[in-house]
Write the structure tokens for this entry.
Amino acid sequence: MLCCSNCFNDNFLSAIIEGKSHSKGECDFCHTSDTSLINTEILSAYIEPLLERYELSNEEGSLISSLLKNDWNLFQQLNDETTLKLLEDILQENMSGLYIPTKQENETKILNWKEFKEELKHVNRFFPQKSPDYEHLQTLLNYIILPQNEVPELFYRARINIDIDSINKKDMGKPPVKIASAGRANPLGISYLYTASNKETAIAEIRPHKKDSITVASFQSSEKLIFADLRNPRKIISPFKLPEGGIADLEFLTHLGDELSKPILPREAHLKYLSSQYLCELIKHCGFDGVIYKSSVGDGDNYAIFFDDKLNAIETEVYIVENIQITSSRIEL
């Protein structure tokens, strides 16, 4: 049977299909018309390594189609039944049943990272013995450079107005180093500029109270900014173009992105931020201007910018926090 690039939602496979296609017509699976087509079996060499990360389960599990959609952002245009049919046609084998992830190399890397975090917190702060391979991490970071056409035109930073009506835009930059407290990306005494992709997220990130008066500054870059994008490495990087062992690296990057984004209780932050601070310091050392990660409190993204001399505050606005919504759920102890 014949399939097309629209079935996969993957730029790398799309290029493979375009390059190897010798005919056009209607896809047998997604039914896109007048599109480049390829025999499904040709793609088996690309799909098999990915499927090796899953195994049949005799108990609980998920459809392989659901796992590939959720884990790798594939087959988003196809329903589960059609995805399963396409996979079986590619591999020439039955893929029905329930699957679970197999234990892979990425688990070892993630376990090592967890051990490294504990060492930073409680054993060695400045000369850790279990630090990640710097050169290997530097290589991985090259996969997640944000394309210049995706760098936002504006960045937003919010501050609470205390005893004043608003804050002057010249005072909306990063804090002076003498009063720079430890943050998710910066250690104590090292100042970064924390911004967000929209005003609502910028306000949410400072955890205001109801009726607080907030100044929000808009920043514009004066030159090119290079960001490491840790929001969703699986969506950014095609698993099919990575070298052998690269899929484990992709899952490790995903874990690091989650580290930057997950909520942390303020009373635990001084220790739990150590590993994300280390990661951001490494990213800065590799020549990046900042790092992007998902906000844990807003619907936008956060941009931690290491040096603010490439940004200018262009205007400020004042907002009043009208309401704060808190939801909760009961847990069984």
Notes: The first strand starts at residue 2 and ends at 3. The chain has a mean pLDDT of 91.
